[in-house]
Structures are given as C-alpha cells and as structure tokens.
Amino acid sequence: MSEIRKKAMTRLVLCAVALVASIIFSVLLLNGTFDGQTGGSQPASGDTISSSAPAEGVDDPTADSFTAESASAEEVPAEPEATPEPTPEPTPVPEYEGLSVQPTTYYNEGEQPTYTVTDGNNLNMRGGPGTDYDKIGQVPASTGVTALGTNEDGSWVVVNYNGTYGWLKTEFLNG
User: Where in the sequence does UniProt note compositional bias of the Low complexity kind (predicted)?
Assistant: First the structure.
C-alpha cells in the first residue's frame, strides 16, 4: 500500500469512529441518560432506560432546543423568603385637656413648627379655633410657642403655654 492510501484509510477510520461516537452521544442525550459530566452515573447492568419518561423539570423532552443539561444549568436560585414588615401600631391621637375643639391635624414630635407671638400683642388662648370660644389664658408678646396641632385650614394652632393647652390665631404669630 502506498503512503497516501495509508493516510487516507487512517483518516477514513477516524471519521467513522467520530461519526459512531456522535450517534451514540446523540441517542444518550435524547434519552436523557447522559448527564454531560465526567464521572456521571451510568445505569447498572439490568437497569432499563425508558425513552418515554420525561427528564426532571422538563415539560417537553422532544423539543428541538432542549438539552437535559440546560434545564439544571439555567435554574434560577430561589429568592430567600422576605421577612414581613411588622405592622406599625397606630399612634394614639393625643387629647388636649381643657379644649372645646381638638385639632384636625397633629404634628409629630420633631416636626412641630415654632412661632413667636408678635410684638405689642398679648395673645388670648382660646378653647377652640375662633374668637367665639372661651378665653382660657394669655400668651405675652414676643413669647416663643410650639404648635402641637392645627385646625383644617391652618389659621389656628394648638399650643401648650405654662401647662395650659389653647388655640392661638396664626395671624398674630411669626413663624
């Protein structure tokens, strides 16, 4: 045999071996028995391989684009369970003693606006947001006060002056 024929025969045999190996690999892959990893488990002698059993996690094992390995390799890890946020207890609405009318808006601690009574005016504190309510105290001119709440339109505020709660008209306060 010539040297060229020997090389051609060798190449032909190698191609035939590669073709047979490809066919065997394809059959194993389609049957779902090939795990694609070295050292993977092989069926024991006497075990039968069923081609009708779908691979785990696969809806249609006959789909053209499916491979058994892609199902496990592309699994998205489960998100950890979120701890539910505790339901906050409703903040009790304060009730200011001595007032005929309670405020419609309450300011949170740290968000309470401060005011100063205008110069030249001693301001009457009232039991409600209006001059028709009883006078329950008086705040001297230039005195600083902190608003605890307000009426609906913000024209009157509730303050605590010397331990007494009362309503002051915002028109006579500097903010």
Answer: 67-81
